[in-house]
Amino acid sequence: MVRSKEDKIVERIAYIVMILVGIIIVVPFIVLFVSSITDEAVLLKEGYSLIPKKLSMQAYSYIWKSKDTILRAYIITIVITFVGTTINVLITTMIAYPLSLSYLPGRKILSFVVLFTMLFSGGLVPTYMNYTTVLGIKNTYLALLLPNLMFGAVNCIIVRTYFQGNIPVELYESARIDGASEFRIFSSIVLPLGKPILVTIAIFAGLGYWNDWMNGLYYVTDQRMYSIQQLLNVMIQNIQFLTQYGQSGGENLPSISLRMAIAFVAMLPIIVLYPFLQKYFEAGITLGAVKG
Questions:
Q1: Which among 279, 280, 290 has a CA at the least distance from the CA of 166?
Q2: Is 41 helix (H, G, I), strand (E, B) or coil?
């Protein structure tokens, strides 16, 4: 295909813009890591930089002292993230699929109910009382699993739109003529053809579970059940307290570099995993956000 001069100019501008956006996104991660391996005194004196002027692994040495606790928190977070993401995707898909069918009885009412949950909530105090007194999840692993993250109305709408625009209704009709049940249609047609959007929703849900520390703050007081985010948040608070009140026992705690190291440790697994899921994420979020 022959491209005009204007098309080439637009393409070059698009490349430049994408490169600039990429730099803006990547640079904070580089600064974060570099700050975590930079000497505390240099950070306080000269601020952040892209190249460490004086290397120091003191922050990671402090984290390593709590490696057993951190490892347990990692395992808890990985299990909760895997189980929660799986259940989240299943619930979202099982709600979105029937809502994508135009002949579903009461479809508008059900769609309104889903949309209503996106706009309104019962509030923090009633929610806390419901989970602690009625469901009794305080200091249980369900406290990290159930509240707030099991289902999202926005994700449901995205998945429903994807199903409506990208899976022909004729496939459902042909399957029903062949005697397939709704469960067979769901498992053999909807799930395989919805792989891009399902991976996208799984990324959203997985990030939600991995980065969640509010549920642990509200419902978990047993340190043996801390997630990685909650544990690292507690470590930061302890460092701030010891530094502020001079109770570090003569040890010079690297408060700034330690915060950077903790943030880097918390996000490292997601950074490693994301490139493998990027192609599904791009396809899913593009097709799912545009109504066909």
A1: 290
A2: helix
Backbone angles phi, psi at 38, to 5 degrees: -100, 145
Around Cβ 129, how many Cβ atoms within 10 Å? 11
Query: Is 50 exceeded by the pLDDT of residue 80?
Result: yes
List pLDDT tens digits, range 8-33.
888 889 899 989 998 888 888 888 88
Region 238-258: mean pLDDT is: 66
Of 59, 44, 31, the C-alpha closest to 235 is 59
The number of residues in the chain equals 292
Distances 148 to 87, 88, 115, 215 between C-alpha atoms, Å = 13, 11, 15, 8
Q: Decide if 63 contacts 262 (C-beta within 8 A).
A: yes
Amino acid at 109: I
Exposed/middle/buried for residue 52 (C-beta within 10 Å: 0-12, 13-18, 19+): middle
Q: How far is it, in rounded angstroms, from Cα 282 to Cα 43?
A: 37
The pLDDT, as a whole number, for residue 20 is 93
Say if CB 264 and CB 33 are below 8 A apart.
Answer: yes
Which residue reads 């792989």 in tokens? 195
User: Is 159 within 8 Å of 96 (Cβ atoms)?
Assistant: yes
82-136 confidence digits (pLDDT tens): 999 999 999 899 888 888 888 788 888 888 888 887 777 777 888 888 888 888 8
Report the distance separating Cα 216 and Cα 225, nearest Å.
9
Neighbours of 134 (CB within 10 A): 8
* Per-residue pLDDT at 286 exceeds 60: no
| Residues 77, 81, 87: CA angle, nearest 5 degrees | 145
Q: Which residues pair with 49 in a beta bridge?
A: none
Q: In 100-223, which residue ranges form alpha helices assigned H by DSSP?
A: 107-119, 124-129, 142-145, 153-166, 169-177, 182-185, 191-193, 195-211, 214-219
